[in-house]
Amino acid sequence: MNRVLLGIYLILVCVLFSCDTKSGKKDVNVSFERDVDVPFEKLSSEYTGINFKNTISPNLESSENLFDYDYFYNGSGVGIADINNDGLKDIIFTANQEENKLYLNKGNLKFEDITNLSGINSENKSWSSGVTFADVNNDGWIDIYISQGGPFEPSNRKNLLLINNQDLTFSEKAKDYGLDDGGISTQSAFFDFDNDGDLDCIVMNENEFFGYDPISFFEKFNDKSVLMANSSHLYEQIDGKFINITEKAGLLNPTFGLGLCISDINSDGWLDIYIANDYYVKDAMYINNKNGTFSNKIKESTKQISFFGMGVDIEDINNDNLSDIFVLDMASSDHVRSKTLMASMNTSNFELITNNLDQHYQYMFNSLQLNLGNNKYHNISHQLDIAKTDWSWAGLIFDYNLDGMEDIFVTNGYRKYGSDNDSRIKINKTKVEYNNRVPLEIKKKLYNELPSEKLSNLLYKNEGDLNFKEVGEKSKLIEPSFSNGAAYGDLDNDGDLEIVVNNIDENAFIYKNISVEKNLGNYLTVKTKGNLSENFAKGTIYYEGSHKTKESKRVRGYLSSVDNELHFGLGNASKIDSLEIEWSSGKKQLLYDITSNQKITVNESNSNFNVIKKEKSKPIFSKIDNFIEYSHYENEFDDFSTEILLPYKQSTLGPFITLGDANKDGKDDIFIGGAHKNEAKIFLSNDSGFYEKNIESFQNDSDSEDMESIFIDVDNDDDLDIYVVSGGNEFNNRSGELADRIYINDGNANFKKDLQEDVENYTISGKTATAIDYDNDGDNDIIVGNRIKTKKYPIHEPSIIYENISGKFYNNTFDVAPEFENFGIVNKVIRTDFNNDGWDDFIAVGEWTNIGLFLNENGKFRNISDDNNLENTYGLWFNVLETDINNDGLKDYLIGNIGENSKYKTSIDKPLKIFGNDFDDNGTHDLVLSYKYEGNYVPLRGKECSTQQMPFISEKIPTFEEFANASIEDIFGDEIIDAYERKVTNFESIILINKGNNKFDIEKLPSLAQSIPILTSDVFDINNDGYEDVIIAGNIYNTEVETPRLDNQFALVLISDKKSNYNVIGPEKSGLYLSGNTKSIKIIGNKSPKLLVANNNSDLEVFELNK
After folding, report:
1. Which pLDDT does position 497 carry in this prediction?
2. How far apart are CA 871 and CA 864, in angstroms?
3. What span, in angstroms and rounded, lies between the C-alpha atoms of 846 and 720?
4. Percentages of the chain per state (helix, strand, coil), in multiples of 5
5. Burial code of 727-750, b = ≥16 C-beta within 10 A, e = fewer?
6. Which residue, among 554, 457, 562, has the nearest Cα to 506 in the 3D structure?
7. What secondary structure letter does DSSP report for 356?
C-alpha cells in the first residue's frame, strides 16, 4: 500500500577443536569502567575506499515512486562475509536502482571495489533488497544470494544466486538451482530445516496487495495461486536442486515480510523461522514440528506483537541463556512527529483484526520479547525504553563494548513521510477534485511537498538488570541519515565489532570499533566450521561462575547478514574455564582452559560427544485440574463508547477471591465475586475437597458487579458473615446496583442479605474493603475504598469508614479520618498495625494517589505519608500486602504499582497528568491525558481520537501540525484550569521497610517485578527458610486500542533476601505460567498449599506447591 495513503489506511484499519587458534591482542589488565565514551570512529570513504550510495530516484510517470509502490523507500541491505577465504571479512551492498557493490577487504579497514571484476551485477540484476551468504554447492567457498523485488512483474524481479568461482568472480545460477523466486523478495536465509545434512532455503516476500482493507486483503487469498505468489517460500534441497515445499511445510500464508531470523527458538535442536510482518498480518513464529512441517505459534507464545514489523534479531539480552526477540516498528519518539505522522486507531477495526481475522494484538511500537522459557515471551520494550525509535529498520543485538552484555543498534529514517496526516488529507482532497486523474505536474508538486527528515541511528548500552541507556548521542552515531540495512563484524580482526550501514542517497557508514584499543574488555571469538556453512552451532562459555550461550546465525536485523562467528565479550575475565559447542547434527565438543583475546576455530568433524538433553528440574508449582470448577463471565459493556479517551476499561476489574471459614470446620472456604448479571459463588470445604453451595441471596443480587469482599463477623455471633463491595462502570451514577451488600451467616454457611440503611444509601462504585476495629471496642468496623463516579473517570467518589454499633454500620469517616474521605480513587485498603501499639492502622492506595499511611491515634487517623518522604509517590497503585521481609517483628509492606512496562512515562519533574471536565459544554464528561514536552503540557492522545470525544478541537485546530505544536492551554483554554486534575509521578512497585517509630525506608522491587502491574499478591514461606516470601501477579487486558495491554502470562515468586528486598523467580523455575487476565490470587491450605488464580472472563487456575 502507498505510504502516502498510510494514514487513510489506518483510519480504515486502525481508526486501525581441531583446534586452530589465531591470537589477537595479549591479555590486558582491564580497567573496566561502565561509562566510557562510545568506542566508535566514523571512517571516511577516502580512507576505506568504500563509496557506495543507495541512490533512489522517483519517476512519477511510472510506478517507481511512493505513490504507486509502497515499498519504494524501504532501502537495501549489507552483507559481511569472507568471500575469498583469506581470513578477512568482505562487504557487499545491495542497491534498489543502482548497481550492487562488492568490496574486498585488504586489511587495516581498507577495501577494494571489485564489483566490475566479480560480475555480481548480471543481466538479471533488478531492485535488490536483502543479501545473505551460504556455501550452496558445498565447495568450501561462500556464495551470495540476493533477494529482489520492486514495482515490476515477477519475471523482472527474480532473485540472484551468485556462485563463487573461487577467483573473485561469481556466476549467476539461481534458475539452475531452482532459487529464481519471483516474489517481492526482501530477504532469505539458508538452513537445514529437516536435519538431513544439506542446506534448505527460506525466501521472505512482501505482498502485491498493499493498500487493501483487511477484509478485502484476506479474501484475495481464497485463490491458492494468488496466495502462493504472496507468501514467503520454503525450498527444500533435493539432489542439489531447491524445490518449493511451502504449502506442504505449512508456510502457505499471506506475508508482508520485512524481518527474518532463523534460530532454534524453542531450544529443541531443530531450527525455526521468525518473520516480522508489516501491516496487519501477524508475525510468523514458525516452530519446526520435526516432520517436515512448521506451525505458526506466535499467538500461543506471545501476548502482543508489533503492528508494522520491520527488522528482527534474536539474542539473549539479559544473560539468562534464553534467546529474546527484538522487532522494530515505526513509533515516533518525538511528540510532534507522533502527532503528525500516525493516525488514531479505531476500536471496531482493532477487534476485527485481533479476533475476526485471527490476527494478533498488534501495537505500533517496537517489541522486545523476553524469553520466559517453554517458548513463552513477555514484551518489555516499554520498560527498557526502546519501544519508540522512530521509523526504524535494522535492530541488531551484539556486545559492542566487550563488557559481556548484549547491546542494541538501531537504524533510522524514512526518505519521504507518506504517512504525514496533513499531506494525506491534501492528497485525498486532490484525488477527489480530479476524480482520481491527477495531472502529472500536480502529482509531482504533491510528491515534492511530502515531509522528509533525516534521523540519527541509535545505540543502546546494556547496563544490566534489564536496563538500557541510549548512548549514541555521545558519539559519531548521532549523524542524521536515511539508514536501512546494517551489519556488524570484526573487519580488522582485532577482536571488536565494526558497524556498516547502508543509506539512501548518502554514502554508506563504516564505524571502526576501538573498544580493544581503549582496553574496555576482553573477548573470545569462535569460528565454527561445520559440515554446512550455515551450521547454527551453539557455543556456551563457562567462566567466573557463570555461563553464556550464543548461536551462530548470519541473517539478522533488516535485509542484511553478519559474519556468523560467535563473538563473546568477557569484561574483566581473562580465561574461559570451558567452551561447549553443540552442533545441529547432535554432536558436541568440549574445550578447556582457554585464554581470552583470541580467535579459535572449532571443527564439527572433531566432535566426539553426543548432545544429551538435560532433564528439567521440577518447578516450584505445578498446575492441577479438578480442584474446583469455576469460570468468571464478564458482561459485555463498551466503556469506550462514551469515554473514548479512557486509558482502560473500568468495568472489567474482577473477579476477586476471599478466603474464610464459613462453615466452622477449621478449613478455609472460598468466595469469588461475579460480574454484572452473574452471581457470586461460594465453595465450602469437606473431607474430599470443595463443593459449590447455592445461595439464593447471591442469585438475587446478580445485577450488581462484585468487587472485593471480606469474611467478617458483623453481628458478633462467632461466625463469619460476608461484606461485598459493589462497583463497575456500566451503571448510571447512584444506581441501586452500586450499593454494597452484607450477607449474614446463620452458622451453617447459609447466607441472607442484611439491609442496612447507611450501606444501602451509599450507592458508589467501590473496589476494596477491610475489617478493622479502629476504636478498640471489640467489634469489627469496616473501611471501604471507593473509586469513581461512573462514566466520569477519573473523578473519584468519597471512601468510607463504617463504625459497627451493635451489628449495624454507620458512616463515621468525617469524624475519624477526614483525609481519607477525599483521598481519591482507592484500589486497595488494608488493616495493619505499623507500630505494634495495639491500635489498628490502615494503608490506602489507588490511581492518581500517593500512598496513604493512616496512623491510629486513639481512634482518630492521621496520614503520616509526608513524614516518610512519600508525598511525591503518586502512582497508579493497585495493591498493598503486609509482610515481614526480615523477621525483625516490624511489619513491612509491598506496594503494587502499574509497573514500568507501560507506554506512559512520568517523573517527579515531569508528572503525567489527567484532567476531567465537560470541555465542550455538551453535557458529557471528557478526560484529557497530558505530559510535559519542551516546558508545556501537551495532549497524550492524538488529534483524531481527541476530536471524536470533543468535536470542537477539529474546528479550533484544523491541521495535525497545529495540534502537534499546541499545548493543552492552547486547545482547551481556561476550561483546563478549572478541570478536575490529578497526577502520577511514579510507576515503580516498592517495598516499605519498617524502621520502627512510624518510619519507613523505600526499596524498589527488582526489575522483572517492575515489568508487570501488581494487582494482587499473597504471602507464604515458599522455600521453608522461616522468612515470608511473596507471589505477585496481575494483568490489565482491556486498555484502549492505542495502548498496549499489560498482558504478562505469568506470576512471579519473590524470595526474601532476609534483609530488605527479594530475589525474583520467573515462571521457568516457578511453573507459574498463567493463561488469563489475572485479577486475584490466594494461597489456600498449609499441609498441601495451592495457589488460586482468578482471571477475568476465564477459568480459575490452580497450582499446587511441589514438596
Report:
1. 98
2. 9
3. 28
4. 15, 40, 50
5. bbbbbeeebebbbbbbbbbeeebe
6. 457
7. I
- Cβ contact 802:786 at 8 Å: no
CB 968 within 8 A of CB 1024: no
Residues 844, 799: Cα–Cα separation, whole Å? 10
The reported pLDDT for the residue numbered 31 is 35
Listed in sequence order, the residues at least 6 apart from 791 whose beta carbon sits closer than 8 Å to its beta carbon are 639, 642, 643, 729, 732, 733, 925
Query: Which of 864, 796, 856 is CA-nearest to residue 831?
Result: 856
DSSP letter for 25, please: S
DSSP annotation of 1010:
G
The DSSP annotation for 792-851 comes to: STTPBPPPEEEEEETTEEEE-HHHH-HHHHT--EEEEEEEE-TT-SSS-EEEEEEEEE--
Mean pLDDT value across residues 253-262: 98
The closest of 762, 913, 764, 741 to 826, measured between CA atoms, is: 764
C-alpha cell at 227: 496466495
CA distance 854 to 835: 12
How far apart CA 202 and CA 263 sit, in angstroms, is 13
- As to burial, measured by CB atoms within 10 angstroms (0-12 exposed, 13-18 middle, 19+ buried), residue 421 is buried
- Model confidence pLDDT, tens digit, residues 276-323: 999 999 999 999 999 999 999 999 999 999 999 999 999 999 999 999
Q: What is the pLDDT of residues 502-526, one digit of tens each?
A: 999 999 999 999 999 999 999 999 9
Quote the strand ranges of 850-935, DSSP E.
852-857, 860-863, 875-876, 879-883, 892-896, 912-917, 926-933
Query: Helices H, strands E: what count in the chain?
Result: 21, 76
What's residue 1094's pLDDT?
Answer: 98
Residue 528's alpha-carbon distances to 397, 462, 565, 591, 743, in angstroms, are 20, 26, 7, 13, 71
CB neighbour list of residue 626: distance below 8 Å, 6 or more residues apart: none
Of 485, 329, 333, 323, nearest in space to 406 by CA: 323
- How many CA atoms does the CB half-sphere of 764 hold within 13 Å? 21
E strand map for 226-297: 233-238, 241-244, 257-263, 272-277, 284-288, 294-296
479/460 Cα distance (integer angstroms): 16
Crossing angle, helix 421-433 and helix 6-13, to 10 degrees?
Answer: 90
Q: What is the Cα–Cα distance from 548 to 191, expressed in whole angstroms?
A: 23
Inform me whether the pLDDT recorded for 985 exceeds 80: yes
Of the candidates 460, 622, 729, the one whose C-alpha atom is nearest the C-alpha of residue 1107 is: 622
| pLDDT at residue 4 in the model | 42
Q: What's the pLDDT at 11?
A: 37
Alpha helix locations (H) across 930-1065? 943-949, 952-956, 960-964, 968-972
Amino acid at 892: D
Calculate mean pLDDT across residues 764-773.
Answer: 98
Instruction: Return the C-alpha cell found at 857.
Output: 491515634
Q: Is 585 helix (H, G, I), strand (E, B) or coil?
A: coil
Q: Answer whether residue 33 shows pLDDT above 70.
A: no
Give per-residue pLDDT as tens, 432-445. 999 989 999 999 99
